[in-house]
């Protein structure tokens, strides 16, 4: 633990740091790979929509079953191979809903249920049910999503700048694609809970990105007024500066969800929770990852194309080259440079820090 | 130690944390008290968690329209019923079709199921039809129809007059305020007339006179009209059955004290854009005001223009709802845009009507087939497993926070508890207030909200620690870190809130319920950080344990790797504090 505490301090001072921006191509590659896998998974296995979206078969009994509701649930799942919704009615009968099955299969399930529940087949009434989450709800949800995306881009463009808005949006799409893809690959049935989980991810992904961007914005204030660090270098400092926060927040957000998914779903067998907790778990992890590894490097990439920032980089490189040419030994120069980088670099504005001699930046370590 | 304390106090920071804390504590106590007083100590739970009532509606086949019960109409009916029962979008009711002609409506426990049953089944086919003839409710012996008619019937049903004295039987046009366009006033005119105790005005209305070119159909209708007995409830309800909107029809007043011969529908419920229940202060009655769509407004203009030139009773139009005449105001001038329906509404019935008008008429009429209770869709054992798992997850969060933040974790946990109390009490109170029901996805959303709430503290704590690494002592560090942390928290929470607001406004059903939970927890996050975490932090900074940087406070400068301060005597301060600590 104290090592962790020290890590925070060392990250803060730039004694340690990971070169997120410099190695961005690797992470872009990783993300593209995962995204492609996710899309492939989606294309191949498709999403397994649950009864709430597709409707399905409903079996109603008039008489009391000889087994408990939860036993009936297990039986129904076993008989159909799908997740089932089992409810006890006022008269003691059961209502069992199972996702779309064909007639033959429905008869088979009915026979199986009759045996399991100890109710004569004639007393089980089979019928079709429509979706409780109809197309209209889905369409409105899409419309809402569209409007939200537009508004959030406008807001980020005003509060920050359009480059950050674009990067945040890309990160968001990245997170959602991965979550949906994993869902398709795992093959869980999509329930309203899954959709709600995805929407939660949407909020969280943007939230997390904005926190990182806020520190980036702070770090790059007045960047053109100095000639020591390029935009990418400062961006990297900002990420490292908020790294502890990012890790802590992610851990705190993921632990309860992991509890639900692995302990609740895996060990205790609360199958119904799996759908929500899986989408939350994957989405939260992807959201935390993309804020650091995708969104911020993307901003840096976009930013470095801006004429002002380009010119700044040129000046800085020229200055460094000049310094090198002044005859200092290569080793010394490197140290100098590193010193520069280890400076707070405005990651927190207004700090005064003496240049420390601890030259262990990523650049140096390489 | 005393001297520095005074100094701190005079810096102005002292009074405020206390006030903020008092505020939030009062809020917490008030909410908790309110919760116990109201007797709703648990949030209402959704069907998936607590079960509820299940209503099965069967579509009535309509004579002459065997194909009316089809998939399209059933789906339309489902989405309309869905909106009706989920008026505020947070009640988590479920609506789905079953078989070819049934609709199942599942309503969570604790909902007023009688009211819900009323709402889901109401067809709400609303038409504005010109009145051709009016008569009393009972079957009319030939000829004598008119006199008794008007006096008793409608009039009482159509109170709308804002402007005029209802007693006045005189010419409605005399009312000065009639010049204004609102429908209400026109209605007023009608009212006055109707309200007149003397049936005299009506006497001249020989119904048949209004009917032109009597042909067979008209004669049949006339016969039907004569025979109609509105005092009989069944007959009243059946009066307009199976009549197409474009045909003339007979209808009873909803009270059964008058009957009407009505022309073809000129404006229908689909022309209504929005409807609201309103209380008319002056008259002390409930009414329903409607805004028309552009198209509806034009139609309404046409009909009122035509009617305003007619003689009584042909200058009335009837507002017929599901075949019964709710009110039949007189028209004195051309109107457009909006209208009011006033009848003998209670608050409840006005709200119900406004609700169904806003959300549209059902394409089919339904009868209640069965009503039964259903248990939770999630098995109790599964739920228990989920709760245990969630608790373990939360315990891990606590362990992690304590391990990393040590003493600071206490503040974080207190803040989470404060946030938890606020969330819980508000949710419990919103159950009875707006029908808010908590379902499983919402519970999971609340668990993720722990992460977002905790993030606010973490952002703040990290800022404070950064300041300490700068060599500052805790008190200034707490104050300097706050503005920056505050900005980060506000900017990022705004994004979450934006998501919640947009989704709440645009969507329906479960998504809306989710958006509500998200918005609520986001707002509470801001409230707790501003009114609780920050003030507590300020207060804690004054204690020896935290302010002195005790190794277990999580703010020990040495552990944080604070630099020896360059400037002045910070280190000296820190040193002087330490011995006291030890």
TrEMBL record, chain A:
GO cellular component: plasma membrane
Gene3D superfamilies found in the cross-reference section: Multidrug efflux transporter AcrB transmembrane domain (1.20.1640.10)
Biological process annotations from GO: intracellular protein transmembrane transport; protein targeting; protein transport by the Sec complex
The entry's keywords: Cell membrane, Membrane, Protein transport, Translocation, Transmembrane, Transmembrane helix, Transport
Main subcellular location of this protein, as a coarse class: membrane
Protein export membrane protein SecD/SecF C-terminal domain location: 121-304
InterPro entries xrefs: SecD/SecF_arch_bac, SecD/SecF_bac, SecD/SecF_CS, SecD_SecF_C, SecD_SecF_C_bact, SecF_bac
Matches recorded under Pfam families: Sec_GG (PF07549), SecD_SecF_C (PF02355)
Chain positions covered by the region annotation Disordered: 323-366
Regions crossing the membrane: 26-47, 141-158, 165-188, 194-216, 247-270, 276-300
Biased amino acid composition, Acidic residues: 330-342
Tree of life domain: Bacteria
An example molecular function term from Gene Ontology annotations: protein-transporting ATPase activity
Membrane topology: Multi-pass membrane protein
Cellular localization per UniProt: Cell membrane
Subunit structure and binding partners: Forms a complex with SecD. Part of the essential Sec protein translocation apparatus which comprises SecA, SecYEG and auxiliary proteins SecDF. Other proteins may also be involved.
HAMAP family linked to this entry: SecF_B
PANTHER family attached to this UniProt entry: PROTEIN TRANSLOCASE SUBUNIT SECF, PROTEIN-EXPORT MEMBRANE PROTEIN SEC
Official protein name in the record: Protein-export membrane protein SecF
Gene, per the UniProt record: secF
TrEMBL record, chain B:
Compositionally skewed regions (Polar residues) per UniProt: 143-161
UniProt-annotated stretches for the region Disordered: 137-216, 556-582
A GO MF term: protein-transporting ATPase activity
Classification via InterPro entries: SecD, SecD/SecF_arch_bac, SecD/SecF_CS, SecD_1st, SecD_SecF_C, SecD_SecF_C_bact, SecDF_P1_head, SSD
Biological processes annotated in GO: intracellular protein transmembrane transport; protein targeting; protein transport by the Sec complex
Membrane-spanning intervals of the chain: 20-39, 385-403, 410-434, 440-461, 489-508, 514-532
Domain SSD: start-end pairs: 408-539
Topology in the lipid bilayer: Multi-pass membrane protein
Bias (Low complexity): 206-216
Domain of life from the UniProt record: Bacteria
A GO CC term attached to the entry: plasma membrane
Keywords: Cell membrane, Membrane, Protein transport, Translocation, Transmembrane, Transmembrane helix, Transport
Location relative to the cell: Cell membrane
Function summary: Part of the Sec protein translocase complex. Interacts with the SecYEG preprotein conducting channel. SecDF uses the proton motive force (PMF) to complete protein translocation after the ATP-dependent function of SecA.
Family: Belongs to the SecD/SecF family. SecD subfamily.
Stored PANTHER family: PROTEIN TRANSLOCASE SUBUNIT SECD, PROTEIN-EXPORT MEMBRANE PROTEIN SEC
Complex formation: Forms a complex with SecF. Part of the essential Sec protein translocation apparatus which comprises SecA, SecYEG and auxiliary proteins SecDF. Other proteins may also be involved.
Protein known as: Protein translocase subunit SecD
Species whose genome carries this gene: Streptomyces pratensis (strain ATCC 33331 / IAF-45CD)
Organism lineage string: Bacteria, Bacillati, Actinomycetota, Actinomycetes, Kitasatosporales
């Amino acid at each position: 633990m104290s090592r962790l505490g020290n890590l925070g301090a060392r990250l803060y001072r730039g004694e340690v740091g990971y070169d997120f921006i410099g190695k961005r191509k690797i992470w872009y590659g990783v993300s593209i790979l995962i995204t492609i896998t996710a899309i492939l998974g989606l294309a191949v296995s498709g999403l397994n929509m649950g009864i709430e979206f597709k409707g399905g078969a409903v079996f109603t009994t008039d008489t009391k079953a000889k087994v408990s509701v939860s036993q009936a649930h297990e039986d129904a799942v076993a008989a159909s191979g799908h997740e089932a919704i089992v409810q006890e009615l006022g008269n003691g009968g059961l209502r069992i809903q199972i996702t779309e099955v064909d007639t033959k299969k429905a008869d088979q399930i009915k026979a199986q249920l009759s045996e399991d529940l100890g109710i004569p087949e004639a007393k089980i009434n089979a019928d079709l049910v429509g979706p409780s989450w109809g197309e209209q709800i889905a369409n409105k949800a899409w419309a809402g999503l569209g409007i939200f995306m537009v508004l959030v881009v406008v807001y980020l463009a005003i509060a920050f700048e359009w480059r950050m808005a674009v990067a945040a949006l890309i990160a968001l799409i990245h997170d959602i694609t991965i979550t949906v893809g994993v869902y398709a690959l795992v093959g869980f049935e999509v329930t309203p809970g899954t959709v709600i989980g995805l929407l939660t991810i949407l909020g969280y992904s943007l939230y997390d990105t904005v926190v990182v961007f806020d520190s980036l914005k702070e770090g790059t204030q007045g960047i053109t007024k100095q000639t020591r660090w390029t935009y990418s270098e400062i961006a990297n400092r900002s990420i490292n500066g908020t790294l502890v926060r990012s890790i802590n927040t992610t851990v705190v957000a993921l632990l309860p969800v992991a509890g639900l998914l692995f302990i609740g779903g895996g060990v205790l067998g609360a199958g119904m929770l799996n759908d929500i907790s899986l989408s939350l778990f994957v989405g939260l992890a992807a959201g935390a990852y993309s804020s650091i590894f995708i969104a911020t490097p993307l901003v840096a990439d976009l930013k470095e194309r801006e004429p002002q920032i380009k010119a700044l980089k040129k000046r800085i490189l020229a200055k460094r080259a000049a310094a090198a040419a002044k005859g200092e030994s290569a080793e010394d120069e490197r140290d100098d440079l590193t010193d520069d980088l280890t400076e707070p670099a405005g990651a927190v504005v207004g700090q005064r820090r003496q240049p420390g001699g601890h030259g262990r930046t990523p650049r140096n370590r390489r | 130690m005393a001297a520095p304390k005074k100094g701190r106090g005079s810096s102005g920071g002292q009074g405020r944390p206390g006030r903020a804390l008092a505020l939030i504590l009062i809020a917490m106590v008030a909410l908790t008290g309110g919760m116990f007083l109201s007797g709703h100590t648990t949030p209402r739970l959704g069907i998936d968690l607590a079960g509820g009532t299940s209503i099965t509606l069967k579509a009535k086949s309509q004579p002459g329209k065997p194909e009316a019960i089809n998939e399209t109409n059933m789906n339309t009916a489902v989405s309309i019923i869905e909106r009706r029962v989920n008026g505020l979008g947070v009640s988590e009711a479920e609506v789905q079709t079953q078989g070819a002609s049934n609709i199942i409506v599942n309503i969570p426990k604790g909902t007023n199921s009688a009211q819900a049953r009323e709402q889901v089944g109401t067809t709400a086919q609303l038409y504005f039809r010109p009145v051709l003839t009016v008569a009393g409710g009972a079957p009319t012996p030939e000829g004598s129809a008119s006199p008794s008619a008007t006096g008793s019937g409608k009039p009482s049903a159509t109170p709308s007059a804002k402007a005029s004295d209802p007693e006045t039987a005189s010419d409605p046009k005399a009312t000065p305020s009639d010049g204004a366009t609102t429908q209400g006033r026109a209605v007023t005119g009608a009212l006055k007339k109707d309200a007149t105790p003397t049936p005299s005005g009506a006497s001249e209305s020989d119904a048949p006179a209004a009917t032109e070119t009597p042909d067979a159909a008209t004669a049949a209708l006339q016969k039907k009209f004569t025979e109609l007995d509105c005092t009989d409830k069944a007959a009243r309800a059946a009066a307009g059955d199976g009549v197409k909107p474009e045909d003339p029809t007979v209808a009873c007043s909803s009270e059964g004290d008058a009957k009407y011969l009505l022309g073809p529908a000129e404006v229908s419920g689909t022309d209504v854009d929005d409807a609201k229940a309103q209380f008319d202060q002056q008259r002390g009655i409930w009414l329903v005001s409607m805004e028309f769509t552009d198209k509806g407004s034009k139609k309404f203009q046409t009909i009122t223009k035509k009617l305003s030139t007619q003689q009584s009773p042909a200058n009335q139009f009837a507002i017929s709802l599901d075949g019964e005449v709710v009110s039949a105001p007189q028209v004195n001038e051309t109107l457009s845009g909006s209208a009011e329906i006033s009848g003998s509404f209670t608050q409840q019935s006005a709200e119900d009507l406004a609700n169904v008008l806003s959300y549209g008429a059902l394409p089919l009429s339904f009868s209640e087939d069965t009503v039964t209770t259903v248990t939770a869709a999630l098995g109790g054992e599964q739920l228990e497993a989920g709760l245990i798992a969630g608790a373990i997850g939360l315990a891990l969060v606590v362990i992690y926070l304590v391990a990393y933040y040590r003493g600071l974790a206490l503040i974080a946990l207190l803040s989470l508890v404060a946030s938890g109390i606020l969330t819980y009490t508000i949710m419990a109170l919103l159950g009875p207030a707006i029908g808010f029901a908590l379902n499983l996805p919402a519970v999971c959303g609340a668990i993720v909200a722990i992460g977002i709430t905790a993030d606010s503290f973490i952002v703040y704590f990290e800022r404070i620690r950064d300041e300490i690494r700068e060599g500052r002592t805790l008190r200034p560090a707490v104050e300097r870190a706050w503005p920056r942390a505050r900005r980060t928290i506000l900017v990022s929470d705004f994004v979450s809130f934006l998501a919640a607001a947009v989704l709440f406004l645009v969507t329906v059903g479960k998504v809306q319920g989710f958006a509500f939970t998200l918005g609520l927890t986001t707002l509470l996050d801001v409230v707790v950080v501003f009114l609780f975490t920050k003030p507590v932090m300020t207060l804690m900074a004054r204690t020896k344990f935290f302010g002195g940087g005790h190794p277990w406070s999580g703010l020990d400068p040495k552990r944080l790797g604070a630099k020896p301060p360059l400037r002045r005597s910070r280190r000296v301060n820190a040193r002087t504090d330490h011995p006291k600590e030890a």
